[in-house]
Amino acid sequence: MKTEYEVVYRTHNTYEENVREAFFSFQVLPCQNESQVVRNVSLNNSLGAETFQHPNSFGFEVISLHTVEPFNTFEFEMRAVVEKDQTLFPVEGILSVEEEQEQLQNHLFYLQNHQFLGFDHYTRISEMYRAQLLMQQPQQTVYGYLQHLNAFVHDLLEFDSEPTHVCTSANEVLKLRRGVCQDYTHLFLGIARLNRIPCRYVSGYLNQGLHLTGSAVMHAWAEAYIPGFGWQGFDPTNHLLADAHYIKATHGSDYADCSPIKGTIKTNGKQKTSYGVSVHPLQEPSTARQSQTQSSFQE
Amino acid sequence: MDAALRQNQSNGILGNYQIPPQFLDEVFMAPGQVHPHYQAVYRQFQEFSKEDFKELNEHAKMSFFNQGITFSVYSDKSKGVERIFPFDLFPRIIPAQEWARLEEGIIQRCVALNLFMQDIYGAQHILRDKVVPAELIFSSKNYLKAMLDFKPIGGIYNHISGTDLIKHSDGQYYVLEDNLRCPSGISYVLSNRVAMKRTLFQVFRQFNVSTVQEYPQELLATMQSVAPKGIDAPTCVVLTPGVYNSAYFEHAFLALTMGVPLVEGRDLYVEKNFVYMKTINGPKRVDVVYRRLDDDFLDPMAFKPDSMLGVPGIMAAYKKGNVNLLNAPGTGFADDKAVYTYVPDIIKYYLQQDPILNNVHTYRCEKDDDFQYVLENMANLVIKPVDESGGYGILIGNKATKEQLAEFKTLVTENRRKYIAQPIMNLSMHATFIEGEDQFEPRHVDLRTFTLLGKDRQFVLKGGLSRVALKKGSLIVNSSQGGGSKDTWVMMEDGAGMSMEQRDSMEQSMTMDGQTMTMGPQGMSIGTEGTMSMGKPGAE
To answer: Residue A138 domain-assigned?
Structure first.
């Protein structure tokens, strides 16, 4: 069963003073993988500047543009059609707890996944908070544990866009007990990695038909490595598993690898930025939607 | 010996020289008795009276003022104060054979470190084989994931290396640091030589000293050798952070002597993953950038987002192979002082050779037993942060106060990965003119060497920056910490020499080891001139 979505990303910036030179980079393109195919990509910007692309460190396409024409408003829009497949979920019991641990403790496995096991500004969790965290139990499988962790992070925090910002770290989130999808995700990443489970930050889009938290803007969730299965997406903000309603754009070690827009501009005044997304199924297969939501609640 | 000379010896600038008892003196073996390679220079310096020498010293200083060679210091008290780097006229002399071995060792080290960086940003064999602990690399803030699975044009990372050496009291050279990011100091090497020639030309011309002034052309050739594919006449530039950088003079100096543009970030831009320079004739594509800008500031799109010094998008252009950067971004993990411990293993791993140069024993505070040792023996150790340069943040145990020791114990305990410790090395001492005392006194010296690696080319500058700790008893030689410098003479083989002359506008000839090569309208000829014998191998 396939679902087709139209995904639109739009940003609108206004500047008090003329911008004399600017360079922008966007990481907003839905990516291609086993479960999603991207078609009909169109890019538009109000400056008429020619865009160019390059793959980032993780192989995801970055769209850039440079301009020396003065301007005081800037709009950028990306439209794409994404065909999304049903996703498979991990099945318990393929590997024993011992076999799973053997793989996670393997040196070569560690080298291959070290970017998703390290601790940096966003994901480091100080000693003082560790005792209150949910850690993997000796007889627990990785998948079993991560589903509990997803619930734990979801319950621990209250969704609130006020107190946090793009630089908020897991430590600050633990102190505030509030945050947005980015903060939920960083905390999930930090705890999973403390258990030596490779875990990566994902940025993407949510089907807006479900009215989930975080669907009005680009969403963030985590992907963790389940031995014997592979990468599985966890959305602690909504306490869901990532399924066909989740359209992935990029992944990386943390937010710093995935920020949707970056820019360097030469101007003197202040600026205002607003952006939004729209994600809608092109033809609504209502039965498919139901089964999807059910499967993502299976635990 | 006539009376005047005798008097100079007792009252002259070298008369009261006290040989340091516990250190190696590079010049003197015993009072009034110098090592053979210093004999001739010593004789010349003995002839100077105090007054003569003070005048010469002033003359040399003026040479630096006139060349505009100044630097500034980053510290709280004296922000932005322009200073001259103190220069000492008594040269540091390294005999040809001693240098030959050093040069071999330096090349070996730089080549091995380049292979190490290739491997770490590639297949990571050395980590798989657990020769170097993976955590040590991954925890370095200079390990850049942007460089993973990417190989720069020509496969070179450390195009320019500044290997720091010291001579210990056992007479052996030890490597103190491998500087693989943006090692500075080369402009001082070249201007020291200019000052030396201007001030003491009659002395200098009597010696067969290896030249240093070819460095800018060697650097340019290195840059050209790693130009992007298909570019025959690459446009090369020097990228500086700007006039407020402490090494701005050097950036300008190198651009000028190489004959390439000196640019700031705002002079460049990226369009469709190519780098362009803004010129009055419109945009000009840039192929090779010698950047004297730290990784962090290089590209706000890839690294520090608020950097206004860099060029947005340059990393993408670099990874597309459309521009080359010297040195490659991300070399800093390899000159991390905790990784330094493993350099001998790194040399053995990649080259299957024994290291030629010695490493100083290093305690990594991250390791439990090393950490304990450091805490208990701090007063006999040098404590260094692993990722700083310029001599900042260093503690020398036996010179530190109780408060400083306590402060460092806290610092080290709080961030064990950030600190290493080494035994206090007995840096050799060298006769140095001390203003105020108006005589020569022994001072500690080290040696920064400069090595260039390009595609199929290697070059070690025969010379270097001999840095002198001017403060009595001090071991810190960095210019930012009150150091001075000396001209460093690497001698040519005994009996061998090279001279070049232009007979008239049509014919050039070069003489090397008695062989004369002549180039002119009649073509090129090589022959032995006169009765001079070929260089005697091994004779010195």
So the answer is: yes
